[in-house]
Design brief:
Number of helices: 12
Distance between the termini: 7 Å
Shape: globular
Oligomer: single chain
Order of helices and strands: EHEEEEHEEEHHHHHHHEHEEEEEHH
Mean pLDDT: 85
Structural class: alpha/beta
CATH superfamily of the largest domain: FAD/NAD(P)-binding domain
Largest sheet: 4 strands, parallel
Strand content: 15-25%
Radius of gyration: 23 Å
CATH class of the largest domain: Alpha Beta
Number of strands: 14
Low-confidence stretches: 296-321
Length: 321
């Protein structure tokens, strides 16, 4: 396996990929179009206030909880205070009635029943799911790459997921908007979908968020999103990685070896070219589509002919050898 890696994008995915590349003996460098790391994980200041543009709750906030070890390896949690909120959101109606999405399912159940005693059974079912999923290990599917899992790994994974099969089947295909329509109370029907960001969010995701907050595994990192990204940047640089800012990638360079196409490097808008054994595109969806189109146009191939190349370079996951 080659030992040099180029990563496109210094967002959280790119910085994490770079850190793990360095930890596993790869020589890596990241090319970032902005002059700051973090990508979408950012914040800005205005008149003494910090406006956070990304993190609402961070999974992995509690010691011993899923994802905590990963964030520690990436240098994101050391010396950082985690702020555990008691509420996820408040929705206030025109008449002053207020729905509070408490992280504690017992408090949430009491509060919501006071708003609408007629919806008691529906509320109890929702809060029972939060209690159940407070123990759900969201990182279980990422402990080992699926391509490296053997029969024993799959058996252990199945046993871990078995207690949650029923609730997953019950809640996975129901959106917050559809669930809200089941309330008898008109205010709760309007308020509930607004709590979790967008009406179409699966209830499984909504329940998982509140369950993780209740378990102490979802909190807000003090310092806001940009400082969180800066921590990963410091970790990556301390591991010996390189970051090139204001270095926008124009295209992925593609070569043929033995009848197969492979990503071999990148060309910047400055016309500088950089080669590596592996190229990882850790950009957002729009940027990835553009980069893949550049890969196809630079070699004269159709988009269909470069689909495999783009898929292979659009992930920040490695298979370590």
């Amino acid at each position: 396996m080659g030992k040099s890696v180029i990563i496109i994008g210094a967002g959280i995915a790119g910085l994490a990929a770079g850190c793990y590349a360095q930890m596993n003996g790869y020589r890596s460098q990241i090319f970032e179009m902005h002059d700051l790391p973090g990508g979408l994980c950012t914040a800005w200041e205005r008149r003494g206030y910090v406006f956070d543009g990304c993190i609402h709750t961070l999974l992995g906030a509690g010691p011993g909880q899923p994802y905590h070890r990963m964030w520690e390896e990436l240098g994101a949690l050391q010396g950082r205070r985690m702020i555990h909120h008691e509420e996820l959101m408040r929705v206030i109606g025109p008449d002053g009635r207020t729905f509070i999405a408490y992280a504690d399912p017992d408090q949430l159940e009491r509060h919501t029943k006071m708003l609408s005693p007629a919806d008691a059974r529906l509320i109890e079912s929702f809060c029972a799911a939060i209690r159940r999923f407070a123990a759900f290990d969201l990182s279980a599917t990422q402990i080992k790459p699926r391509s490296l899992m053997g029969p024993g790994d799959w058996a252990a994974f199945g046993m871990k997921m078995l207690p949650f099969v029923g609730p997953l089947a019950k809640w996975a295909l129901v959106s917050a908007e559809d669930f809200a329509a089941r309330f008898r109370d008109p205010f709760l029907r309007r308020a509930f979908p607004k709590v979790f960001g967008w009406p179409e969010i699966p209830m499984m995701a909504a329940i998982s968020i509140l369950g993780a907050m209740h378990a102490g595994n979802a909190a807000f990192p003090a310092g806001a999103s940009l400082e969180f990204a800066r921590a990963l940047e410091r970790r990556y640089l301390a591991l010996g990685g390189e970051i090139h800012t204001k270095a926008q990638v124009e295209r992925i360079l593609v070569e043929r070896q033995g009848g197969r196409a492979r990503a071999a490097g990148v060309r910047l808008y400055s016309n500088d070219e950089h080669r590596a054994d592996t190229v990882i595109s850790a950009v957002d969806a729009a940027g990835r589509s553009s980069t893949c189109w550049m890969a196809s146009s630079s070699t004269g191939r159709s988009r269909a002919a470069t689909t495999a190349i783009c898929r292979s370079t659009a992930s920040s996951r490695f298979r370590w050898g």
